[in-house]
Amino acid sequence: MVSVWDRVYRHPALRFHKYRLFHESAKHSFQGSFCFHIVVRSLSWDPTCVRCQSSHEVVLEQLQLFHRRKQSLQKRLQDPDQRLQLRRKFLQQAQSYIGVPYAKKYHEPGTPEHESTLFLDCCGLIRRVMKDLKSEFGFLIGPGNQAYQFDTLPETVASEEEMQPGDLIFISGTYFSSQRKRQLHDMVHVEIWLGDGVHSLGARWQKGKVQIFDSYKFVSTSYGDMKYHFKSIETWLQGTCVSHCPEHKWGSSLAFPAGFDNSDSEPSKDAKTTEVKGSQKLALYPAHMEEKKQEDSQASGPFFYIGGKNGAHLVNDYCTSKGWQQLQDRKREDYILKWCESKCAATYCCFKAGEQLLYQIPNNKVLTTKIGLLNSLREYERVMNKLSKLHHHHRLLRLDEFFPETFRLDMKDEREAFFSLFKEGQTWICKPTSLNQGRGIFLLKTQEDMDSLRVQLDNTEEDLLNRKLTFKLPQARIVQRYIQSPLLLEGRKFDVRSYLLIACTVPYVVFFRHGYVRLTCNIYDPNSNDLTGHLTNQYMQKKHPQYKELKEDTVWSMERFNTYLNEKFVATMGLPEDWVLTVFTKRMQQIMMQCFLAVKSKLECKLGYFDLIGCDFLIDEQFKVWVLEMNSNPALHTNCQVLKNIIPSVVNETLDLSLEIFYKSLKGQRVLPLGCGSLDEGHLPDAERRRG
Fold first, then answer.
1. Is the domain of 110 the same as that of 229?
2. Which of 52, 118, 186, 317 has its CA 20 to 30 A from that of 631?
3. What gap in Å lies between CA 357 and CA 337, rounded to an integer?
């Protein structure tokens, strides 16, 4: 007997075929013709057995089909439109369980509820819906309770206003009874946000059923000290379900491509899940994780690790082209490159400076959050103005020359200054400090808008003082004067995404790179309240009903932008030829340089840290250039032709330059000249390429 099945059996695509593919042979085991037998979760193959040969071919076909469908699913889930449709399916499927009772034991025998064939508690409802949609999501969620579900959703939503239908509301609290076992994170309940006011859907009461509630807030008879935690399901929508909690390493969900049926593999519990005791892990299919770790330990390296989806396939292609091997175990510390979307304290704690490359400087928020950038620029201007009185320095750009007038709403004096400044007819834009993709942004145009904002801020401040907030501290906000007369392209508003690459921090080596132009779908109307006409990012534009037909025209290359301005404005406005590639480019570099210098002394510096920052610029009708914001982990999707031409080069050049400078720094060699990348070092002042 030749043992070849251990590897195939452990493969996630085939694990749920354990009984379906081999069940018929198992029936004959008592008659002496049992050709498949399980030995420590492995199967043996008899090459002379016709049944073995036939089943082996079926297994290989299923394995190939699994890989094809998995790739197709991952590609599909990168499309925000597909994720929006999946979010709607999630909601519809959850609503289909309205009326299902909470648990059998709480109802009298003979009642319809007691005789029900299905019971769902709060986390059981979520788990059931995810099971129903396993093929669409690409995984089968593990059997953990609400604490497990909480740990697999890392994206916290700051407030009700920023919640989307389908997001989850988790409730932590303290049980009144000392006999009740304390839950992990004290997480006692979960419901689904419906988006209609503060309505929610869930299974709340023991003698109740799945229903829609007028409000997610309620008084419980079982627990008190309730706190509400808003979580986005975007991570699940992207096909990822793993624990993001460093304290609790739950077991993995099952990778599950569309089109497969694993009806034999689902655990029998649809509602209640046994509580985790001590450090026990809920591993639905531990063999899958063991196999990945075994593969990692047997590989020779060099290794790289990718955490998250943004640009993952591009980074993977780059690394594998160099013969590097990808790690699946995020705890491994012997990587040469780690590229992660979210910043985890454990990652930086274990980082080995001078031996490894790590994407994202840990405290880049001083540059990439709205308040962080505002504070850094203000402080830098104040210090440089004092120094200029003592010494002769090159002219510093004044803040009001490139940064819209801005006030912090979390600072009382600035807040009051803003309210006293506002006049009817002005437009201001309010933004949370750390969110991206246009989330949480709204316009302030009328006195009614201002009064509503003031009440909201006063209530939040009062709740903070009285400790009545029912969720984590809301994100601080800023307000900026809205630039109402932007330059338009074919009647549409636009901004320009460029890149600042901090390729090395010891010494500092910084590069500028052109990106692309982002346009709205709608013709610009300053009086409209539709944010898709004011915010140009792709996330907002995808909400436009005709986005699919218009998307190729919502992103322009810099060459097309330059040609358009040459044709439309060189003669009429007296603009110099190729203004985009000369005057505008130089201005962007000046602004970027001032922003970088403002944070240079604040950033954490270790050999191996590197960062790619997305910088957004707006041009008004007088051709004045404004910086809107700087973004960490900028979007690296390629959902239109222009982005397909640009983004892969951005990723490859980022890694080429960071690697070359890293190795040169290790060897004590001069950084310049550079032997890689198409970023033109001639575009940069010398001060931008080395630590000042």
1. yes
2. 317
3. 5
Residue 232: both structure tokens together: 């986005």
Shared domain for 427 and 440, answered yes or no, is yes
Closest CA to 127 of 139, 152, 144, 105: 144
Q: Reduced to 3 states, what is the DSSP secondary structure of residue 563?
A: helix
| Cβ atoms within 10 Å, residue 274 | 11
CB 538 within 8 Å of CB 310: no
- Whether the per-residue pLDDT at 32 is higher than 50: the answer is no
Query: Do 245 and 96 belong together in one domain?
Result: yes
Query: Which range of residues forms the domain containing residue 630?
Result: 488-500+514-603+614-661
pTM over 0.85: no
52 by DSSP, 3-state: which?
A: helix
Supply 565's token pair. Answer: 């301005």
CA 592 vs. chain centroid, Å, equals 25
Can you tell me whether residue 487 is helix, strand or coil?
A: coil
Q: Which residues contact 83 (CB under 8 A, 6 or more apart)?
A: 77, 234, 237, 238
Residues 628 and 550 in one domain: yes
Task: Residue 475: give its domain's CATH number.
Answer: 3.30.1490
CB 618 within 8 A of CB 536: no
Give the C-alpha separation, 505 to 608, whole Å: 8
Which runs of E-coded beta strand occur in 208-354? 211-213, 223-231, 254-255, 303-307, 325-326, 337-340
Whether 383 shows a pLDDT value over 80: the answer reads: yes
Based on the number of CB atoms within 10 Å of its own CB, is 683 exposed (0-12), middle (13-18) or buried (19 or more)? middle
Q: Which whole-number Å values give the CA distances from 407 to 74, 403, 431, 473, 672, in the listed order?
A: 41, 12, 11, 20, 41
Greatest C-alpha distance within the chain: 99
| DSSP state for residue 210 in the 8-state scheme | S
Q: How many CB atoms lie within 10 A of CB 622?
A: 8
Cis peptide bond prior to 154, omega within 30° of 0: no
CATH code, domain carrying 626: 3.30.470
Q: In degrees rounded to 5, what are phi and psi of residue 500?
A: -110, 115
Same domain, 181 and 243: yes
Task: Flag whether 97 is in a domain.
Answer: yes
For residues 418 and 453, is the Cβ–Cβ distance under 8 A? no
Q: Average per-residue pLDDT in the chain?
A: 81
Query: Tell me: the pLDDT tens digits for 531-544?
Result: 889 998 887 888 88
The rounded distance, in Å, linking the Cα atoms of 684 and 678 is 13
